[in-house]
Amino acid sequence: MMQTHVAIRDISLFERPVRFVRPFRFGVVRIDAAPQAFVRVELDVEGGRRAVGASAEMIVPKWFDKRPQRSPDQTVDDLRRSLAIARELYLSDSGLDTPFGLHASRIAAQVAACAAEDIPPLAACYGPAEIDKAILDAVLRAHGIDVFKGLSTNIAGIDARLTPDVNDDAVAKFLNGRKPTQAVAIRHTVGLDDAIEGDNGIDAIARRESIRYFKLKLGGNPDTDAERLALIGRELDATGSPGDRLHVTLDANEQYADLAALTDLTSRLDRDPALAPIATRLLYIEQPMPRETTLQTPLDALTDRTVIIDEADDSYAAFPAAKALGYRGVSSKSCKGLYKSILNSVRAADWSNASRSYFVAAEDLTCQAGLAVQQDLALGALIGVTHAERNGHHYVDGFSHTPQAEQEQFLAAHPDLYTRTDAGIRLATGDGVLSTSSLACPGFASGAHPDWSTLDPLQTPTKKIPQEHAL
Question: Max alpha carbon distance in the chain (Å)?
Fold first, then answer.
């Protein structure tokens, strides 16, 4: 399969409200509801075929932009605006290009147009990320092949034009013959307001759902975090799993003000016996400091620790800049861009050697049942992750926000990924892993599409793209 050229004919944007069954808190943000965005793309594929593709993603408040002067509702509107701006840019030229070429020729204009409206780069990338997923879905459906086979032969035309630190040969080497991870273990996130003990506590969840990986949120205060981690450590020990069978990651979501505060916490991990259950199971620390501080501050004495970036990953230049400062990895999230995840994986493979390894981790709590979780899971399986932050089902009641007929279509298309329970159709999480087998279907892990007639048009401001940012 050679790379394919396409022309975009239409892009439609929708949303659907999603209410949580329990609130989730990270940093200073507490969420109990959020809309989910849906993208429908219609395009012409060279050779005369017409195809439709789709994607979905939560519109999460106060993650893409944590500036205190922006309210949660304003940050949601900014993501809607990011989608609307991207739609105009992708429709601005009806000529043929590869799926990756469409992305590469528009991402700079997208970031600039969003900056003119005070939308930061990470939020700016949201719009293209969702449209790119839908375009790839349409292309794969037109050819009747799955995402793993399609990208292993580079049907999207991915090259190194946005990543000059690697070359096209490195891209081809990484993609050639990639085989997906057959099952991805669930890394269960423990939010700052989540129960640690009891029926919904760590020991209970580990036993009930066979969870072997936990992601623990940090609040940014070494004293408070150390006390909470000690309690969590006792729960981890209570599961009876030895240190080599149960693993944790720590995520501060930018809450550690500076390197001194972070060093305070890591020193406690080194010396406090009460934190040994955490320290012995710790895989890495994720995005401890604010994104602005991150790319200006060498890790210095913490370079030997495994620390990765997430919110600081707001451009193609971010991972190399973080590497130069001592960081070892970067998160993959399809909401930040599937091509950036793939190219960062190319980098990690290219940079790693016998003395130092680099990696891409799978992070995204907010992927909900349906296209969102399927496409992000497939992306992770493609780049080779073995475990992923994947317990959005803990906060949202399965497909409860989705019409029953649509639920049934997804269950029929992906019977290994979903299961019917007394409470409704849910992710099949009972053995602590998610199967990727049915994601090898024509399209971008999309055996079913949403019922478009049940969705609301995307709510979006009416601002236009400044003329100087048009293609």
Answer: 67
